[in-house]
Amino acid sequence: MMDNRSLLEKADLQLSDLLTDGGLLTEAQAMKFLRVMIDQAVVTKIATVKPMKSHKEEIDKIQFASRILRAGSEGIALAESDRAKPTTDKVELDAQLFKAEVRLTNEVLEDNIERGTLRQTVMTLMAERIATDMDEVVVNGDTTSTDPFLAQFDGILKQSTSNTVDAAGARLTKTVLKDTFRAMPNPFRKGKRLLRFLTSSNAEIDYRDSLSDRATEVGDRALINDQPIGYSGIPVLDVDVMPEDQGTGDKTSVILTNPKNINVGIWRQIRIETDKLIREGVMLIVASLRFDCKYAHEPATVKTYNVLAA
């Protein structure tokens, strides 16, 4: 019977694409792969995720966009021109199909260090990776993209057009966040405790560093502690998939909105199915889902662009 070291060497040859440094696992790690942490989904965790009853579904919305009270006179009805009615509108979700496929040979399934449990490990990792990939297209989707994955639908960056701010190449500081907040229409500022700033990792680091320059307890906490930071009571969230290569190649963006304004419609849940190609000796693992993303009310969002992220 092979000892653990021999088994690891054999596994390393067959699964070298799972190892990033070319090294062997230690004896203490012999029965499990080290699961590399991937970027964690952020946006889809805080957005409104709703099951769709069909592959297309409309979100109805209604509001009084302006003043409805008028000066009144006793015993006299308001003139027809003074009567108010709510404004109604619809947003359509149109679920697009996404797939992932992994193939494992019988030899890999038999000889790897996890032996009979590799299949389940791979399926679990696929589900975790899919959550992050959903975040990527929800944020960066663009129907004009040359990347077929991102071209399925427009994401929240592309959809944010009503209220925009040009940071003109500045790093993320309280001034940039102040300008972003001031660009939010007044009716949507009132519930600011529900708002969130969504930005890239480097931009969040820059803002945290700018706070640490203050010779106060707040500055110390921003520098030393791994705690969420904010502006005017609004959390600033680090979104791993937020691009940092916009503009001249070193810029990013900030989105300010209530995350519940982001609607992710899923026509059906992630389906992971397996099959075997007997002649080839291959196990197939195929994942698929259909989803779309739309703002429920796009004017209730602000996008600040040209934020330096280098």
Question: Describe it for me?
Answer:
The protein is an alpha/beta fold. Helices cover 26% and strands 29% of the residues. It has a domain at 94-308. The protein has 9 helices and 12 strands. The protein has a 6-stranded mixed beta sheet with strand order 5-12-9-6-8-7, covered by helices on one side. Strands 1-10-11-4 form a 4-stranded mixed beta sheet. β7 and β8 form a beta hairpin. The chain is globular.
Overall mean confidence score, pLDDT: 83
Task: Name the structural class.
Answer: alpha/beta
Parts with pLDDT < 50 across at least 5 consecutive residues: 4-30
Total of DSSP H or I helical runs spanning 4+ residues: 9
Tell me what portion of residues adopts beta-strand conformation. Answer: 25-35%
Assign a percent range to the helix content.
25-40%
- Rg from C-alpha positions? 25 Å
The biggest sheet, with number of strands, parallel, antiparallel or mixed sense and barrel status, is: 6 strands, mixed
Global geometry: globular
Q: Strand arrangement, largest sheet?
A: 5-12-9-6-8-7
| Helix/strand order | HHEEEEHHHEHHEHHEEEEEE
Terminal Cα span: 54 Å
State the total count of DSSP E strands: 12
Question: How would the blueprint of this fold be written?
Answer:
Layout (H helix, E strand, L loop, with lengths): L3 H11 L28 H4 L1 E4 L4 E8 L23 E8 L1 E10 H6 L6 H23 L15 H4 L4 E3 L7 H9 L3 H4 L6 E4 L1 H12 L4 H8 L4 E3 L2 E5 L12 E7 L4 E16 L4 E14 L5 E8 L2
Parallel strand pairs: 1-10, 5-12, 6-8
Antiparallel strand pairs: 2-3, 4-11, 6-9, 7-8, 9-12, 10-11
